[in-house]
Q: What sequence folds into this?
């Protein structure tokens, strides 16, 4: 609903949100309830740092060309023929998406068997991420409590591996922490049954 007002410029947009992506962010908002003395003609989005300005007519904007890991302030203001509204700001930090895989050399083994867990960490477009710490987690199939303490480091091609002696049944999962503009990655869980 648009409320008629004697003020010339429009009210500020409401419900402003930002969704971070890979070198970009998607900004969404709701049109102001007060349009002012003339119809809203569009919105101006500004980016700090960088000074980028985007003019749109709808209630969303995709801001591109951002640097992963850098914190940005995005502002949006409504405008009509009389001028612009107060700007509303949100903060966002774009991150490179990551994917972490994990497989086991055996999932149903005799107790005392050496089992190797291995996988690969990749970034945007399948780019291999080397030199990254991968943390291993495990829990009993009958418990919700996770344990950790084992780590591996990815090679230049993004691959990693870790071996252990299977003396009990465990559910394993691997994670790579967020860092340097990179999002956190979590592998699918693998259940290893030791008979």
A:
């Amino acid at each position: 609903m648009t409320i008629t007002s004697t003020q010339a410029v429009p009210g500020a947009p409401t419900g402003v949100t930002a969704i971070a992506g890979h070198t970009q962010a998607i900004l969404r908002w709701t049109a102001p309830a007060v349009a002012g003395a003339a119809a809203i003609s569009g919105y101006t989005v500004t980016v700090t740092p960088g000074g980028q300005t985007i003019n749109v007519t709808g209630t969303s904007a995709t801001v591109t060309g951002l640097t992963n890991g850098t914190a940005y302030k995005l502002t949006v203001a409504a405008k009509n023929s009389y001028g612009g509204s107060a700007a509303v700001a949100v903060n966002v930090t774009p991150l490179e998406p990551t994917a972490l895989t994990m497989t086991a050399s055996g999932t149903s083994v005799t107790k005392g068997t050496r089992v190797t867990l291995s996988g690969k960490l990749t970034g945007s477009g399948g780019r291999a991420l080397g030199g990254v710490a991968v943390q291993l987690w495990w829990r009993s199939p009958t418990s919700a409590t996770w344990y950790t303490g084992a780590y591996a480091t990815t090679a230049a091609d993004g691959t990693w591996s870790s071996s252990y002696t299977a003396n009990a049944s465990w559910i394993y999962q691997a994670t790579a922490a967020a860092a340097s503009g990179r999002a956190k990655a979590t592998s699918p869980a693998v259940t290893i049954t030791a008979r």
